[in-house]
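Objective 1b. Sequence-to-structure analysis of Response regulator.
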Amino acid sequence: MSTLRIVLVDDHPIVRSGFRQLLELEPGWTVIAEVGSAQELAAWMLQSTCDVLVLDLSLPDGDGLVMLRHLLAQRPDLAIVVLTMHDGALYVQDAITAGARGYVTKSSAPDELVDAIRAVGRGETYLGTDVRDYDGAVAADSEGALPELTSREAQVFLLLARGHSVARVAATIGINAKTAYAHRTNIYAKLRLGSDHELRLLAMRRGLIGRA
């Protein structure tokens, strides 16, 4: 039996330790590294590789979705399972669109992560039971919540609402900064907003992001 090599990326050591113990109960599975930040992950990936990477979206020094896109640009065949506290439909959509093969929330039963890794190891996609209903309906949900905006403007809106700078928005969705600023200007005008703070408050009221 070949060994399945797993890397855990989460900024809480106690979380990593608990999941490591769980995963290594599975025959042939081994956690070859635990990583606590985006910087550590980038350095580790320069020298090593794995079969499955379990990635938290909330890293202390970077956005997990940005890191996910960066990793898959370098290694398109890498199987990434998102393990996160975020259960909103838009987070699920962003992660799967970016190329994640699995999405499990931290409020799920621990065995769900095992099921997710087993599925992606077979080349399948896995959504946790508490986010499975979002599959195939997420885009419609986001458009319904932001009817005033085009699809691209809605995408920019959501990234700004999650705290991204305009430069980070541009890098995340592959547009230049000038275009990103133009989208933000249009969003402000259409929604009668005066700042990114007002934008985030609106996103909370419409249920697009959680309350801080």
